[in-house]
């Protein structure tokens, strides 16, 4: 499959971690500027490394956070991440990030998220819609001029919907997790649509986060969970019992859980490169995408951490097409189906459905 075609196709991204999606050039620039005790040559070695074990990836995140966790940098990377996704014709982005508290620099979970929102507001090279209320009167895509020959690329200015998910880190306590959920509820009018559970899958206990996740669900927030990233059948069982709106990864699923997943119809966020690089699947050709796709299970291709894994969503589509022998029509339908699993309201969904329909006519699918 031609990369160009994968880029030109409209796409939705539902599983992208803000700090993991940092531009490599920005990360290198920040590392270089760091006057402290960081040895740049060592950092560079880690940053440009190809394969990373699970442990290395989480070490890498600690390093990234050292460089990025101040208000201005959070604002900067948010802006860049949105621009990067928009530039490859992602038309809806659900960006997730873990609100962080750092008293020494006057950062609270709230001020962290405010810095993210400032980043969204500061994007100027593309049209961003992230405040739900504003969109009631004017949808982002319905006002488009008729799309002509050049598919998505024909549109002079890129347009993108952005929604936020607040992540609970598995290292957090029940109280800290609850604080994140409360913050998400208070920021719903600013485009926060749900909660994610992520972080090192070898750390923490399901029962620690459950009260916060149940509270989120009761209050009508959407929930997605990193599920089965490492072998932990008991946790997978509990997570399926919880019935989240979506799950991420689903790599280590025993047969019984795979059956339950299929009958539950819970959509799965598939991150091919991430899974291969962290050795969560032995190789791409045995990836569980195939089994789920053949079973017509709801799926959506995502990047996870485009900066850390040197990927982008178009590349993930190309990898899927090349590895699993899917053609343009299948790729387009896969992308279009993603719209059905977004957490934003029905108005946005409808606008995106119409947009995909109009583009389909102009793309060779
Ligand atoms: C097996 C493996 C390491 C796969 C990578 N997949 C992931 N699994 C779990 N949590 C993640 C993963 N990638 C990113 N995160 C979470 O997202 C954070 C980075 O983005 P942010 O600071 O929330 O803006 C990481 O610190 C981690 O808590
Ligand atoms: Zn993830």
TrEMBL record:
The organism sits in which domain of life? Eukaryota
**Catalytic reaction list:** N(6)-methyl-AMP + H2O + H(+) = IMP + methylamine
Keyword Cell division belongs to the record: no
List cofactor names only. Zn(2+)
Q: Which GO terms describe its biological process?
A: adenosine catabolic process; inosine biosynthetic process; nucleotide metabolic process
Which family, according to UniProt? Answer: Belongs to the metallo-dependent hydrolases superfamily. Adenosine and AMP deaminases family.
> Which PANTHER family has this protein been placed in?
ADENOSINE DEAMINASE (PTHR11409), ADENOSINE DEAMINASE-LIKE PROTEIN (PTHR11409:SF42)
Q: What is this protein called?
A: Adenosine deaminase domain-containing protein
Source taxonomy: Eukaryota, Viridiplantae, Streptophyta, Embryophyta, Tracheophyta
């Amino acid at each position: 499959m031609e990369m160009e075609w994968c880029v030109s196709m409209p796409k939705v991204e539902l599983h992208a971690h803000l700090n993991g999606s940092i531009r490599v050039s920005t990360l290198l620039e920040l590392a270089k500027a760091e006057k402290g005790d960081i040895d740049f040559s060592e950092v560079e070695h880690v940053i440009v490394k190809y394969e990373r074990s699970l442990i290395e990836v989480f070490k890498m995140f600690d390093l990234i956070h050292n460089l990025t966790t101040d208000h201005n940098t959070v604002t900067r990377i948010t802006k860049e991440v949105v621009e990067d996704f928009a530039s490859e014709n992602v038309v809806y982005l659900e960006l997730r990030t873990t609100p962080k508290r750092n008293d020494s620099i006057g950062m609270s979970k709230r001020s962290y998220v405010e810095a993210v929102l400032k980043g969204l507001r500061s994007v100027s090279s593309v049209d961003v819609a992230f405040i739900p209320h504003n969109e009631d009167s004017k949808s982002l895509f319905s006002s488009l001029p008729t799309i002509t020959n050049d598919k998505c690329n024909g549109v002079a200015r890129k347009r993108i919907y952005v929604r936020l998910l607040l992540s609970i880190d598995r290292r957090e306590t029940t109280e800290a997790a609850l604080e994140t959920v409360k913050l998400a509820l208070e920021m719903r009018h600013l485009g926060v649509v749900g909660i994610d559970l992520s972080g090192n899958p070898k750390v923490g206990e399901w029962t620690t986060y459950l009260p916060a996740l149940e509270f989120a669900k009761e209050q009508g927030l959407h929930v997605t969970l990193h599920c089965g990233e490492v072998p932990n059948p008991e946790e997978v069982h509990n997570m399926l019992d919880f019935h989240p709106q979506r799950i991420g990864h689903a790599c280590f699923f025993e047969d019984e859980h795979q059956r339950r997943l299929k009958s539950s119809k819970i959509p799965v966020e598939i991150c091919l490169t991430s899974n291969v690089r962290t050795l969560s699947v032995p190789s791409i050709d045995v990836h569980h995408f195939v089994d789920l796709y053949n079973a017509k299970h709801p799926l959506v291709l995502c990047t996870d951490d485009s900066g850390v894994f040197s990927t982008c969503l178009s590349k993930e589509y190309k990898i899927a097409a090349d590895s699993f022998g899917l053609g343009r029509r299948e790729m387009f339908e896969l992308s279009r189906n993603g719209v059905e699993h977004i957490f934003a309201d029905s108005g946005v969904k409808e606008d995106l459905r119409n947009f995909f329909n109009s583009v389909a006519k102009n793309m060779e699918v």
